[in-house]
Design brief:
With 267 residues, the protein is of the alpha+beta class. It is built from 8 helices and 15 strands. The strands form 3 sheets. It has an 8-stranded mixed sheet, with helices on both faces. The protein has a 5-stranded mixed sheet with strand order 12-11-13-15-14, sandwiched between helices. α5 runs parallel beside α6. The structure holds adenosine-2'-monophosphate and calcium ion (CA) (3 copies). Adenosine-2'-monophosphate binds next to β5 and α3.
């Protein structure tokens, strides 16, 4: 097995155990407001520290970027670990059992490994570039749907609501003309993993951070799906505007999205 995948899995499981223990004891969760409607807990921080400790033991020189710690530059800037220790904190705080640990490893600007771990269901999604994607030991392959007809799509609401909600609602309105329904799960990492696993047929979201999407992006692509920005390009890790689906569904989503894009959403 890819040695870095091995460490990423160990780190994701360790963080997942911390999260699951916290979930069982809600009285142990201390919640703080980073910004209005933006929560962080002691568990987010403990999980991130555990992940960093495990990476540091094997790869002391690698660069680590975590949601809660920011960039920890190592001597080796060519290898970056991008961590979201708890994706879906709002769900976690509400005892809504849907959240995950997300860990991606990028080498020279290309994602090589992606791991998303759901500690409640004990589901481990993994991908290595060129070697496919798996849920636990089962290979994932996105279904080759012809179009949006009957599709179940996932999304999240934009956090810069004033700026982006009108466009988001227009896009939902356009998609639901053809698609069957929407899910709004509260974890972008799991939304992408679920595209890879055919639990939803497509996904779009505005304004994600790299730690939300870097691991899930590789899961989708290694399962044979397409991930793009809103212009069909590759800028989604930077812009945070992302579409993920099987090839023809991704194309159909982009066609529906494009008439509603404001200037800042065009890539
Ligand atoms: P988080 O739980 O790690 O913060 C849900 O649509 C996605 O948005 C989740 O991946 C969630 O990640 C992220 N998210 C939640 N609140 C946010 C906020 N205030 N700003 C930016 N992203 C947020
Ligand atoms: Ca957060
Ligand atoms: Ca997140
Ligand atoms: Ca987080």
């Amino acid at each position: 097995m890819n040695p870095m995948l091995n460490i990423a899995i160990r780190a994701a499981r360790r963080a997942g155990n911390i999260i699951a223990k916290g979930y069982e004891r809600p009285e142990s969760i201390e919640t703080a407001n980073k910004r209005p409607n933006d929560y962080v807990t002691n568990i987010d921080k403990a999980a991130e520290e555990a992940v960093i400790e495990i990476i540091r033991k094997s790869y002391p020189d690698h660069t680590i970027i975590g949601e809660e710690s920011g960039a920890l530059e190592g001597e080796n800037k060519n290898v970056q670990w991008i961590i979201d220790p708890l994706d879906g904190t709002t769900n976690f705080v509400k005892s809504f059992p849907h959240f995950a640990v997300s860990i991606a490893i990028r080498e020279n600007g290309r994602t090589e490994v992606g791991v998303v771990y759901d500690p409640i269901r004990n589901e481990l999604f993994t991908a290595v570039r060129g070697e496919g994607a798996k849920l636990n030991d089962t290979r994932l392959r996105v279904e080759n749907r012809r179009d949006l007809d009957g599709a179940i799509l996932a999304t999240g609401f934009p956090f810069k609501a004033k700026q982006h909600m009108p466009a988001h609602l227009n896009i939902i309105g356009a998609l639901i003309e053809d698609a069957a329904d929407f899910r709004r799960s509260g974890s972008a990492a799991l939304d992408l993993a679920y595209v890879a696993a055919n639990r939803v047929d497509g996904y779009f979201e505005i304004g994600l951070k790299p730690w939300d999407s870097a691991a899930g992006d590789l899961l989708v692509r290694e399962a044979g799906g397409i991930v793009t920005d809103f212009s069909g390009g590759h800028n989604y890790l930077k812009s945070g505007n992302i579409v993920a689906a099987s090839p023809r569904v991704a194309k159909a989503i982009l066609t529906k999205i494009q008439p509603h894009l404001t200037d800042t959403l065009k890539n």
